[in-house]
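Lab notes, practical 5.
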Amino acid sequence: MVDFKDSVVAHSAEVENRNLLQRVRWSLHERTVREWLTPFAVSVAAIAITTWIAFHLALGPVTAGFLFLIIVVFSAVYGGGWSGTLTSLVATACMDYFFFPPVLHWNMDDPMDWLALGTFEFTALVITMLQDRAQLKAAEAEAARRDSDRLYNAARGILFFDKASDLGDRITTLIQKEFKLEGVMLLDAPTGRVFVSGSCLPDAESYVRDAFIKNSDTFEPGTRTWYCTLRAGERPVGGLALRGTSMRRLKAQAIASLCAITLEGGRAWQKETHAEAARQAEQLRSAVIEALAHQIKTPLCVLQVASSSLPAMGELSPTQAEMVASIDDQAIKLNALVTRLLGAADLETAQIKPILAPVMASELIRAAIQKVEDQAQRARFQVSVEGKEVPVLADGKLMTIAFTQFVDNAVKYSMPRSPITVRVGMAADGISVRLQNQGGVIAPADHERIFERFYRTAEARQGPVGTGLGLSIAKRIVDAHHGEIRVESGAEDGTVFEIILPPAPQG
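Output from the prediction step:
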């Protein structure tokens, strides 16, 4: 339950604006006697002096009437409707007695008296209404200025927020304090979190969620609460409740926009920070891999030299010769793996700048297949070209490296001796190279993540040894060619990697 003292403080900002407007609503029944009596007394004295001077100078009724009209205007401006009306009656009486014939006699039946009274009264009313309207507009402008000052102060306070802290709590606290509200509730839709400052109604959260879902702003007069949608452009990103206010819609929407901009800015800052941290982590990983690979190179060379020298040192039994040959063969494979690892680290840290030229995609994929060491594995590939082949615009060396990664993955993660098909053809958005193999299924959630550095699916970690760099390097190369990689994977059709490359200009 809200304490009475807190409620008074919460309403003070709106009361201040309402009082400012009420002070300028000077209609006839709102003025006190003190407000119009002094101007009326001054006006009566001015009429008396004007009458004495005009009468002794023998001025006509037109001149006297003009002077009286000026006094009526003064009375209406400084005394309002009551002062202007009474001044009009006094001026009409003086006109009738001193200036309309018969002079120095009362003749209230004369139409000129009524015409003079109507002129004076009409002028007084018009002046009063125009003055009231001008002062009301001035008060509204002053209230708008104060609202602008509060919005400016809130924006300035938000600008100095620590982006690493929890912005939701700080925003609601600042908005409640700056606009002196009973309570503020903020829904951050992307995270699903709700932040509250002050006192809000029990069902406020459901109303805030409705505002977000319906993308609409509503005001509840009974609880004096605004329920607004937070928008990033045209897209709703949350909801906001402002309790204890009768502010205008434009002001409530401005506060909601300020909250939305702050939350989106905080998210952008966090993404940028995480991206920079990830970039530094990847640089460190690449450096460690490169250092380890270079350190492994030396003992590998010694191992290869030793295994190659053993047969020359003497007669070896068939079993010994077989073991030495196995050691030599595995050392060669390990040396090739380290060389590839070094090349991968170099590509990870370097900026890829392809030298583009027209080249046939089928030739590049065949060159990648030829890099497979085992003849039996190379025989599994079936390459076909659909229709007349159109050359792609690519760097042949870089694209061969990328295709080698896809070929190597197809061999490692497919069922043994199963066929691997490669089809080259035209697609709606370029030249398509589709590699299809039968093997483990890649979950839909991993279709994007398999191209991240060092990421390996759970199935891949249980299979052949890998670095987790191959597909990330291939994607970087394809992206540098303004191409695209698509993944399809299912139990029936197997896994398909489709690489889309731009065609070379036809000249």
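Observations recorded by the TA: The chain is about 60% helix and 15% strand. The two ends are 80 Å apart (CA to CA).
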